[in-house]
Structure formats: C-alpha cells, structure tokens
Amino acid sequence: MKHALAALFCVVAIPALAQGAGRGMEVGLDMAQVMRVEDPLGTIVIGNAGLLDATILDDQTLILTGRAPGVTNLILLSPEGEVLSERMVRVSGGGAGLTTVHRGRSRETYACGARCTPVFSVGDEAGFASTVAGQIGTGQQIGAAPPR
C-alpha cells in the first residue's frame, strides 16, 4: 500500500511541482514591475492581495506592485478560463535607503538621502503609521487636484 501511495504521489505531484518550478519572481516593496505574457490575459488571481497588487494594462501586460513583504501566488487565466501561468511571487522588504528607528518596542521607518522623510511601513508603531498614512493620503489628494 505504501508503494502504491508513493507511486501515486510521483505521478500526480511531481508534474505539478515541475510546472511551477523556476517560475518564481520578486517584486520590491512599494515598487511597480512590468510583467509581459505571450497569450492574451483574461483574469488574474492573487493568493494574498494584501501582499501584491496587479493591474492588467493590456491583454499581454500586467503591472505588479509590492504592497507588503511576504510570499504569495499569482495565477494568470486566459479569457476562456484556461490557466496560462502559475508562479510564486516574493515581495521583498526593500530596505535600500530605508532607516528603521527603534524606541523600546515602537518602530518608525524613514527614507533617507540628504534628508530623512517618514515612510509608511508595515510593522511601524500605530500612531506613527497613522500620521504617515494621513500625510500620504493628503499628498495624493493634492496630486489629484485639478489645475486652477
């Protein structure tokens, strides 16, 4: 019986594992990345939309944006519902140019160049994150305001 189950695993699981092998990709946190596919897209499915966002630009181009660090899967379907691609996507935490300040148990994140600017990062102290998120929202409203 054990041998029959092992053989069944080899027949069913190994081709499924091989299909996804080598098809991983990485997207940076708060970064956009263009992904092109050969066949026309119909639907995209993201395992954890809290980690990754995807927008269909045209029938062969996606824009992927890392929302939070972690790993999720991405499934691309044709307009007829056929699976075109399945892959794992790692959203990397970035860190390049970011400075994290720890004060006891609280944490704040800054993007530093000539000056340091607070940035929104998952895991930051709630009050700090709320303030930064509010500033980001205000900035988006200002950027979206019609010209006067």
Mean pLDDT: 78
In terms of DSSP E residues, the strand content is 35-45%
How many β-strand runs?
A: 10
**Arrangement of strands in the largest sheet:** 1-7-6-3
Biggest β-sheet description: 4 strands, mixed
The whole-angstrom Rg is 21 Å
Secondary-structure element sequence? HEEEEEEEEEEH
Helicity range of the residues?
A: 25-40%
Low-confidence stretches: 2-22
* Secondary structure tally, helices: 2
Q: What class would the helix/strand composition place it in?
A: alpha+beta
> How does the overall form come out from the CA principal axes?
elongated
What is the straight-line distance between the termini?
77 Å
Overview features:
148 residues, disordered N terminus, Pilus assembly protein N-terminal domain-containing protein, signal, elongated, T2SS-T3SS_pil_N, alpha+beta, 26% helix, 3-stranded antiparallel β-sheet, 4-stranded mixed β-sheet, 10 strands
